[in-house]
């Protein structure tokens, strides 16, 4: 009994000591709220406002998990992340999302358009008639004769199915008879949201004939019906980056170039400019972000073996890079190296009045048309004549496709060299008074072999392919 009582007393002492310890812990431990970090600022949203889309540039090497976590923390929803270039696409209904992430890293073309309605965007193209003929219309293609594409075909040169040209545009009509065998649905995608959508109805054209016209210049079939492209037999990928209202946003272009790189496309054709700017001739908010994001995508694709072609735009602007503190005009992607940027000429070989230009930016020239003499090519339901640098660029993409078919192992730099070293030189005009009012409409700088109007000169399919034994008469 003595042993039992002693054990009970000892147990009581243990219980009392434990209770005292718990009481002390309760009295002297700070409340939990005083040791937890302050909650993040609530995510504010604007009533009845759809989320806006942003392109976001992270430090190179940023892991996808880290990027997505930061976007979510700052009230955004990650849509796509391209780890190889550390560029993300996200949406957010928070009006201060850009400030949260940092305006030096994030940009929304949608927000910029909403703040400045009516500024920027639509490709300038001359309305023209549709054609539904089933006859051979190659005789109307003065543009093909100007670059000697017809001579290359006469020499037996054709495109190659293994050479893929990504047409970054408004969608390509794969049901058109001249393009049905060219467009590869497996390589086509809609990039409007910044992430690829491969459903056929997503990448096909809806409101615009633009992409189908560009595609026809490159690779319309040589079948004796309608028109014939520069490189018939080449494979085309329809990569939709121009939306219903004619806008091409930075995230769409990034997605397009990354898609082309992913599928090892040899060439991309970009007959558009990035919105919301018509043409930024001064610093614009978000321009640096857009340039960085698109530049990274282009560089990545170039390293993967893709050569890029872009239209110079139809703003008649001088794109010569600014020196020092001077303000200059800039067009994306036309002003980004290593893009091959193309100016447009009319049938008279004179720079078209609408065509932008600039020493150090323009690589080569090609026919884009002027006045009532435009470029005939494919369009949904038939054929159409359009003028623009948009039409000039695909002539160059077509010639590059022919070179790539003949030189399958050539690097982008090698393709570029072969193209630019074998052109028809075009000197600066002595007089560029298009309106006849006694005032020069633009000033050409440089010399015969390389200048701001024509770069290295008019692209030439025969010369670029080294077909010295083929007679040429590019003026016919």
Automatic annotation (TrEMBL):
Residues 161-436 form the Peptidase S8/S53 domain. Residues 127-141 have a biased composition (Basic and acidic residues). The active site is at 169 (charge relay system), 210 (charge relay system), 390 (charge relay system). Residues 1-34 form the signal peptide. Keywords: Hydrolase, Protease, Serine protease, Signal. Transmembrane segments: none annotated. The keyword Signal applies. Residues 115-141 are annotated as: Disordered. Belongs to the peptidase S8 family. This is S8 family serine peptidase. It comes from Haloechinothrix salitolerans.
């Amino acid at each position: 009994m003595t042993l039992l009582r002693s054990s009970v007393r000892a147990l009581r002492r243990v219980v009392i000591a434990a209770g005292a310890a718990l009481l002390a812990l309760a009295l002297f431990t700070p409340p939990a709220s005083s040791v937890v970090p302050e909650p993040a600022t609530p995510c504010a949203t604007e009533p009845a406002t759809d989320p806006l889309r942003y392109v976001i540039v992270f430090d190179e090497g940023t892991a996808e998990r880290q990027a997505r976590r930061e976007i979510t923390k700052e009230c955004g929803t990650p849509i796509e992340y391209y780890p190889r270039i550390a560029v993300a696409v996200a949406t957010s209904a928070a009006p201060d999302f850009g400030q949260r992430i940092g305006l030096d890293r994030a940009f929304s073309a949608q927000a910029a358009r909403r703040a400045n309605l009516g500024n920027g965007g639509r490709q300038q193209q001359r309305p023209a008639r549709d054609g539904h003929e089933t006859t051979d219309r190659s005789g109307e293609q003065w543009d093909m004769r100007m670059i000697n594409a017809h001579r290359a075909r006469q020499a037996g040169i054709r495109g190659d199915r293994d050479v893929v040209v990504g047409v970054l545009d408004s969608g390509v009509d794969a049901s058109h008879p001249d393009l049905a065998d060219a467009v590869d649905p497996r390589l086509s995608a809609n990039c409007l949201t910044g992430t690829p959508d491969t459903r056929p109805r997503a990448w096909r054209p809806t409101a615009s004939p633009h992409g189908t016209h560009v595609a026809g210049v490159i690779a319309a079939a040589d079948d004796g019906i309608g028109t014939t492209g520069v490189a018939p037999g080449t494979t085309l990928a329809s990569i939709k980056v121009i939306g219903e209202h004619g806008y091409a946003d930075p995230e769409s272009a990034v997605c397009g170039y990354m898609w082309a790189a992913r599928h090892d496309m040899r060439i991309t054709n970009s007959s558009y400019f990035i919105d919301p700017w018509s043409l930024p001739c001064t610093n614009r908010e978000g321009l640096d972000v857009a340039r960085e994001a698109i530049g990274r995508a282009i560089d990545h694709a170039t390293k993967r073996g893709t050569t890029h072609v872009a239209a110079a735009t139809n703003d008649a602007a001088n794109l010569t890079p600014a020196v020092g503190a001077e303000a200059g005009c800039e067009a994306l992607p036309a002003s980004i190296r290593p893009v091959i940027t193309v100016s447009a000429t009319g049938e008279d070989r004179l720079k078209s009045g609408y065509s932008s230009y600039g020493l150090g930016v323009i690589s080569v020239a090609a026919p884009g048309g002027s006045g009532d003499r435009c470029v005939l090519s494919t369009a949904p339901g038939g054929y159409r004549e359009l003028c623009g640098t948009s039409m000039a660029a695909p002539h160059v993409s077509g010639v590059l496709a022919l070179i790539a078919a003949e030189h399958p192992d050539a690097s982008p730099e090698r393709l570029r060299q072969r193209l630019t070293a074998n052109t028809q030189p075009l000197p600066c005009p002595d007089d560029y008074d298009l309106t006849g009012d006694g005032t020069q409409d633009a000033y050409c700088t440089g010399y015969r072999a390389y200048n701001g109007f024509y770069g290295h000169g008019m692209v030439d399919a025969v010369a670029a392919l080294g077909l010295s034994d083929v007679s040429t008469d590019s003026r016919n």
